[in-house]
Amino acid sequence: MTVIKGENFTAKLVSTVALKPGQVFASTAAMTPSPVGKRYSTVQVSETAHVELNSDLLYMNHSCDPNVVVDVEHGVVTAAKHIQPGDPVTFFYPSTEWVMDQPFNCWCGAPNCLKHVKGAKFLDADTLSQFALSKHITRMP
Question: Across residues 34-44, what is the average pLDDT?
Answer without folding.
Answer: 92
